[in-house]
Design goal:
Layout (H helix, E strand, L loop, with lengths): L6 H22 L7 H17 L22 E4 L9 E2 L2 H14 L7 E7 L2 E8 L2 E7 L5 E4 L1 H5 L14 E9 L1 H13 L8 H9 L4 H5 L3 E10 L9 H10 L8 E4 L2 H14 L7 E8 L2 H7 L9 E5 L4 E13 L4 E13 L2 E7 L3 H7 L6 E5 L7 E7 L22 E3 L6 E3 L5 H12 L11 H9 L14 H5 L6 H13 L5 H7 L7 H11 L2 H6 L2 H4 L7 H12 L1 H12 L20 E5 L7 H10 L3 E3 L8 E4 L5 H9 L2 E3 L1 H12 L1
Parallel strand pairs: 2-11, 19-20, 19-21, 21-22
Antiparallel strand pairs: 1-6, 3-9, 3-10, 4-5, 4-7, 7-8, 10-11, 12-13, 12-15, 13-14, 13-18, 15-16, 17-18
Helix pairs in contact: 1-2, 12-13, 16-17
This protein binds 2-(butylsulfanyl)adenosine.
The site of 2-(butylsulfanyl)adenosine (IVH) has 14 residues, from strand 3, strand 8 and strand 11.
Length: 670
């Protein structure tokens, strides 16, 4: 890099360095120290300055993440050394066999394993020269891949610039986190585009978009797990050291990794993450086990296809074959009738599955499925299992087609399937099935997050007539709940507290809780940002609604229809009366209840995103700062809280979990 030669050039470099620092804080360390707005201001001044001096634009500038015109196609590019795949171990026995082979080949020398999660995405090689990202190449056939540099630049966790000057190549996995994947599918639904089957397909498709702006909108992540020099050879003497070095250069390196002294420790790691895998924010399909010492790796060498010094421990496939015994119909909160396959119980990766969703009549037709057929079912994460395909048709004498009922199976109301719609719906707004589903949605984790309000309790509350509309939950008393079967006074009062605490949920959550079709988490946030108040959204016209980002005619229509319906207008009034948040202005309240208090957020909170937690605190007049010091009033710690939590403990700073924070807002508010 040539040294900045003019004051403008050094001003540009200064701005870029600051932006890089904040991107690293945000996308890699998950620890933003400035607000999004502050970041935007900084980015805009860089854009402005670069527009005035286009000759000073460098490819590693943070403004260069999103490129210009769509491409024709991708150019092929050779790899410096083959991007190999790994042998698989499908169970403990195969892993032990691998370990025995290693021990023999190393002639009794001591060895350690570096053990990492096997991220389920696609691999990508990224080359750096003089500290700048030069080239990103997909795996391709292992020796030749495709150059996707421009698209890779849009991945915020992939550094465009690093500290080290030397030429090197990082290899890693491009993934789409679960949240980003779900959001993407909700958006696809809204645009009536086909859903992506899983995050891996979505990540692969997103990285290979001809239009870089589309890749940029997909929120991919890059986890580095391998380091090579220019010639494709290792740089350090241990793999672990390579990972630490990559992290120090600003790469996202998964910190769920471990050095294991023997195969038993490796198996412990594999079991631990098999149990936890559904709770991770991304999908994994196994564990990668590597000999840590590079000289020993060299000693072990390669077969034609894979290294002898590494193996992938694959988690059990999440698919299995079984029989469709019947097809029932469930009624959802929008009244949609969902056909559900009743299966001969079958264990799929450790969980017994006896139901799978079939979505709608069209899906059944697409699968060519009839009752009595054998099918492949798939379980992914905590999503409801689904039928992938028919593997064998049933015998003609037992095989029978599914027919959508013309009456609601719950309330006997009329069922209609509207023109252009995939779903058949029960049109009775008072259908108890719809009410239960509405409450279930309202209370769920990603919406109002009312812990303790589960299916059984919802059933009891509705059956006992205590809840006739979602808003009735805010009228429940501890005595009423405690009187229900299987409820004690303690769990009843916990529930009442959790219900009360949910009053502090921010507007996007409340909006999402209404269950408006096509209004998921992201759309709710964008709407709240655009309109700032529930009433303004409720009274907006279809045209006005479309001024919000990403809201097209179909979504706008759905929102307007929802609020036009008198039952929903009533619901809104009752939720208002219950004290839910309809307002969404970022008011830095002078005299707010948390005024003068400094908060530090660390780790992942169970239901609130970092932005939401921050907003709640700031709305109440508190301040959120990046690092823990003696001036910190509270550290709000979630899962995977790291050094900040340690520091807080050392300094004796008060700790809060999410419930504690919500409690604080509640008590400080009253
Ligand atoms: S190391 C020579 N580490 O799994 C060693 N791979 O079949 C090369 N993967 O193609 C791979 N997470 O796409 C390694 N922590 C990790 C990984 C990982 C995911 C993928 C990678 C590779 C495949 C191996």
């Amino acid at each position: 890099m040539s040294a900045p030669s003019s004051p403008i050039a050094s001003q540009l470099e200064e701005l870029r360095a600051q932006l890089r620092h904040h991107e690293h804080q945000y996308y890699v360390l998950d620890n933003p120290v400035i607000t999004d707005a502050e970041y935007d201001v900084m980015m805009r001044s860089l854009q402005k300055l670069e527009a005035e001096h286009p000759e000073l634009i460098t490819p590693d500038s943070p403004t260069q993440r999103v490129g210009g015109k769509p491409r024709e196609g991708f150019v092929k590019a050779p790899h410096s050394s083959a991007m190999l795949s790994l042998e698989n171990a499908l169970d403990e026995e195969e892993l032990r066999a691998f370990d025995n082979r290693v021990r023999e080949l190393l002639n009794g020398a001591e060895y350690r394993y570096a053990v990492e999660l096997k991220m389920d995405g696609l691999s990508l090689a990224t080359r750096y020269t003089g500290g700048v990202l030069q080239q990103a190449i997909t795996r391709g056939d292992g020796s030749i891949g495709e150059e996707v540099t421009e698209n890779a630049r849009t991945i915020r966790s992939l550094p465009l610039r690093v500290g080290a000057d030397r030429i090197f190549e990082a290899r890693g996995e491009v993934i789409l986190g679960r949240r980003a994947f779900e959001r993407l599918n909700v958006e696809r639904d809204a645009q009536q585009l086909p859903r992506f089957a899983n995050p891996r397909n979505a990540a692969a498709g997103s990285l290979r978009m001809l239009e870089t702006a589309v890749t940029a909108s997909r929120r991919l992540d890059y986890y580095a797990y391998f380091l090579l020099d220019e010639a494709g050879a290792p740089i350090f003497d241990s793999h672990w050291e390579s990972l630490d070095w990559l992290a120090a250069q600003g790469f996202l390196v998964n910190n769920k990794r471990r050095i294991c002294a023997n195969v038993d420790e490796v198996l412990d790691f594999c079991r631990q993450y098999d149990a936890e895998r559904d709770n991770l924010p991304y999908e994994i399909d196994g564990v990668v086990i590597k000999i840590d010492s590079i000289p020993q790796q060299r000693q072990l060498g390669y077969t034609a296809k894979a290294p002898r010094w590494a193996i992938a421990f694959k988690y059990a496939a999440r698919q299995a074959e079984t029989l469709v015994e019947d097809i029932l119909v469930q009624v959802g909160r929008t009244g949609a009738l969902t056909p559900v396959a009743c299966l001969a119980p079958q264990v799929v990766s450790g969980v017994t599955v006896s139901r799978a969703t079939l979505h709608n009549e069209d899906e059944i037709a697409r699968l060519g499925l009839q009752i009595g057929d054998r099918v492949l079912v798939e379980r992914s994460g905590d999503v409801i299992p689904k039928v992938v395909r028919v593997t064998q048709e049933g015998e003609p004498q037992v095989r029978r087609p599914f027919v959508m009922p013309t009456e609601c199976p719950v309330c006997s109301g009329r069922v209609v399937r509207e023109e252009g719609e995939a779903a058949s719906r029960c049109i009775n707004v008072n259908c108890p099935a719809r009410l239960k589903e509405s409450i279930r949605h309202f209370a769920s984790r990603s919406v109002m997050a009312i812990d303790g309000l589960g299916d059984v309790l919802i059933e009891q509350l509705v059956e006992a007539g205590l809840v006739r509309s979602v808003s009735d939950i805010y009228q429940l008393t501890q005595e009423q709940v405690a009187a229900l079967e299987r409820m004690g006074p303690k769990s009843a009062s916990n529930l009442i507290e959790n219900i009360a605490a949910s009053r502090n949920m921010p507007l996007p959550r409340v909006l999402g809780a209404l269950g408006i079709r096509f209004v998921g988490e992201r759309t709710a946030e964008l709407l709240a940002d655009e309109f700032g108040h529930m009433d303004r959204i409720a009274t907006a016209t279809v045209e006005e609604l479309q001024t919000a980002q990403e809201v097209g005619p179909k979504v706008a229509e759905s929102i307007a229809n929802f609020f036009r319906e008198p039952h929903n207008a009533d619901l809104l009034d009752r939720l208002r009366a219950a004290g839910l948040k309809f307002d969404h202005v970022v008011k830095k309240k002078e005299g707010g209840p948390l005024k003068g208090l400094n908060f530090v957020l660390t780790g992942t909170l169970p239901t609130l995103s970092r932005d939401e937690a921050k907003k709640l605190i700031e709305d109440a007049g508190g301040k959120v700062v990046g690092s823990v010091s003696s001036k910190t009033s509270f550290v709000v710690a979630g899962e995977e809280a790291g050094s900040k939590l340690e520091k807080a403990k050392t300094l004796g700073i008060a700790l809060l979990d999410e419930a504690g924070l919500l409690e604080k807002l509640k008590t400080e508010n009253s």
